[in-house]
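Hi R.,

Here's the chain you asked about this morning:
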Amino acid sequence: MSKILKVRNVNDYSRYLGCKEQHPLVSVIDYTEVSPVRHSLNDYGVYGIFFHDEAEIDLAYGCGKYDYKKGTVICVAPGQIGGKEDNGEEVMLTGWALLFHPDLLHGFPLERRIKEYSFFDYRINEALHMTDEEHDILASLMRQIREELGKNPDELQNAILVGYIELALNFCQRFYNRQFVTRKIENSDILVCFDRLLRDYFEDKLQQTLGLPTVQYCADKLCMSPNYFGDVIKKTTGDAASNHIRQFVIQLAKNGLAAGETVSQVSDRLGFEYPQHFSRMFKKQEGVTPSEYCQRVRS
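And here is the predicted structure, written out as tokens:
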């Protein structure tokens, strides 16, 4: 049976590493001060940002493995499991960890906005690879947060901590946006695979049993998390993956209507449960009903 460290609050992890408690809801760890450390497979009840300066660690995350190298940032959210099971081995690490409890965000706009940072739901093999400059920015923020944690608490401390955390998350988002841009060739390959997947889906008539293809289905087939897949498609095309699917379906529908199929036949062939659902999607995408489109094509 796996030995899992339950990180229900930030200090569960701090205590495991031998760190003193800094704050009930926030912890910043400088790994140089606690190394060597034993591995731990963690069940998180908190948010965490982890990055190491020098590391070659084979980590587990969900069902996969990942080589955790220099300049890699891993972000975790409550409900996720990650790390490496304690096997008695100790490893020397340099780098940082920031953990914060969801309760810290109560009453702050970040409590609502944190769900917009889609990288918390990326798989570990979709982790952020930082440049040296990006690494230094995050490391500097870790030092500033830790300095604030060392001060006597007052009525503004939590607001300042949340501000620092939001700044760190915004930098991570900027770094990811840069990564998507610098990997344009790789991302365009994903788009080609996406279109091929949609073509095969309808050629194999999967819509007859599975219904219309979903973002989740496509992401799974392309071995990505839905959030990462959606972000890649959005950055590559400027449009949401779900809308890309709808446009693909509507183009198939237009081909069928132009070839003389009835609205009902097209709806049934493309896997819509009811013709009304098809007509509603068609009008939303094209601004006209399928029948009006047929009249235009044939006039």
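One quick note: The chain has two domains: 4-182, 185-298.

Cheers,
M.
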